[in-house]
Amino acid sequence: MTKAATLRPLEGVTVLSLEHAIAAPFCTRQLADLGARVIKVERPRVGDFARQYDERVDGLASHFVWTNRSKQSLTLDVKAAGADEVLERLLQETDVLVQNLAPGAAARLGLSYEALHERFPRLIVCDISGYGDDGPYQKKKAYDLLIQSEAGFLSTTGQPGEDGMAKAGCSIADIAAGMYAYTNILSALILRDRTGEGSHIDVSMLESLVEWMGYPMYYAYQGAEPPPRAGASHATIYPYGPFPTGDGQSVMLGLQNEREWSAFCEVVLQDSSIARDARFESNARRSANREALRALICQVFASLSAQDVVVRLEEARIANAHVNDMHDVWRHPQLEARKRWVNVHSPSGSLPALLPPGRSSAFHPRMSAVPGLGEHSDAILAQLGYDHERIAAFKTAGVI
């Protein structure tokens, strides 16, 4: 890779983020990965409250380590006297302002797009909220699990029955909003190159997750029966899900078409007559009679180890996967073979970090340290023109 080719796409772009929890930090970490300078504004002494979620990573919080590498931490009490001057100086050098404060908080601080656009016409302002900046839910508090509920996600996950609902095991509403904010910011930067003007981006967690619910929504189009909860199995395609094997393990497998169904019966179940059973002659029939089909599959798998089943599935060219836990993923052979793990620095020392998805021949992503609270405050303020005495006065007054 040549020196010219190591230039990252967002080098020279400065992002100022008033962020906490997951959605905005996840967005801005993607921007930092691409080379943007991300200045993370945190409350003095307390910081982003995600720093205190747990202590699982050598004393640091797992959520925080995941979403905040490669950033600079500036402590600033945005409501304190003198903070507005600091923000004004920061905004003079900022390309993108990101915030996911409580509904209306940024506007009260004078940080809305409307308040800033005249002074900073090239500034891109991205607001991330639960429900968006208008509508009847505008001021409603929103957390990830609540949005999973509002977006209908909980109606599709878990076990059958009224009490079978289950949430996603990670913060999917936050992740969805963070990724849509990220892609909208990239498009806004491209547009600014053409027009010279910044723009306002309004991303809601609800709309982000509802977009991901497109399949079950269309499946239930015009009052049709929604897809049922099906645990770890597919709600409408069968067989597609986990099946136990004789050695106490499970194998995940999935069929997509009739060719695969015939091969599954002949090679995996070793009984081609099952493929001609009227109960299973189409996906719709297999899904409707899944309990009977599951019994047949489990009967065959009971005499086989998980590896035996995988060998047969591979021979039949049927898609399959291991049912991994988090410890298995840490040592996944494919991630290791593709050299997807690197080490980054943190206040607790060196930590492993997964390279961002998407391997480019043009540049290496930035993989810098997870910042300590206020680690860069002095340096940032000095760059803004504040001398040592003024910075000391800010500290004494609790501004930083």
Question: Explain this structure to me?
Answer:
There is one protein chain. By secondary structure, the protein is α/β, with parallel strands linked by helices. The protein folds into two domains: 4-212 and 338-397, Rossmann fold; 240-323, 2-Layer Sandwich (formyl-coa transferase, domain 3), CATH 3.30.1540.10. It has helices at 23-33, 62-67, 83-91, 105-108, 113-116, 144-150, 172-195, 205-212, 214-219, 258-268, 283-288, 290-301, 306-315, 326-330, 333-337, 377-383, 388-397, and strands at 14-18, 37-42, 72-75, 96-99, 124-129, 200-204, 240-244, 250-254, 319-322, 341-344, 351-354. The strands form three sheets. Strands 3-2-1-4-5-6 form a six-stranded parallel beta sheet. A three-stranded antiparallel beta sheet has the order 7-8-9, with helices on one face. It has a two-stranded antiparallel ribbon with strand order 10-11. Helix 1 (23-33) links the parallel strand 1 and strand 2 (37-42). Helix 1 (23-33) crosses helix 7 (172-195) and helix 7 packs across helix 8 (205-212). The longest helix has 24 residues, at 172-195. The two termini are 41 Å apart.
